[in-house]
């Protein structure tokens, strides 16, 4: 059913909590797991950019995640991309033929003000496959 699962990760608590759900799905369905970290292009007026824009930080995050899943007996492929998170997540899902995207949710899209800025909401609306949102 879910041959390929895409799990976009960042350093948030919500992503760590969603990892448990990913483990259950991948083990139950024998899915291929693809981890994705999206580095947002720094704004022109931002002198230093975001802390996650460091290639070393992203590589460390992906290696830590791969180790976490390896500890559960799950082999994962890790991808790093640069761009707007929601669009990049959906593009990668399409490129790899993902059958499911699993995302943690910060709850920012639950308010009228946050709904247009929520990466999760944008992914749900643009995704080429089902999206499981882990609160």
From TrEMBL:
Belongs to the universal stress protein A family. Pfam families: Usp. Signal peptide: none annotated. Residues 1-135 form the UspA domain. Gene3D superfamilies: HUPs. This is Universal stress protein. SUPFAM superfamilies: Adenine nucleotide alpha hydrolases-like. It comes from Brasilonema sennae CENA114.
């Amino acid at each position: 059913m879910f041959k390929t699962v895409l799990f976009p990760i960042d350093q948030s608590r919500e992503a760590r909590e969603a990892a448990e759900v990913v483990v259950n799905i991948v083990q139950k369905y024998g899915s291929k797991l693809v981890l994705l970290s999206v580095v947002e292009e720094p704004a022109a007026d931002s002198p230093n950019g975001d802390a996650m824009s460091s290639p070393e930080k992203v590589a460390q995050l992906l290696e830590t995640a791969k180790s976490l899943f390896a500890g559960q007996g799950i082999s994962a492929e890790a991808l790093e991309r640069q761009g707007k998170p929601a669009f990049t997540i959906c593009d990668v899902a399409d490129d790899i033929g993902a059958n499911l995207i699993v995302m943690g949710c910060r709850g920012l899209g639950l308010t009228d003000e946050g709904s247009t800025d929520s990466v999760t909401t944008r992914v749900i609306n643009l995704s080429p496959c089902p999206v499981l949102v882990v609160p």
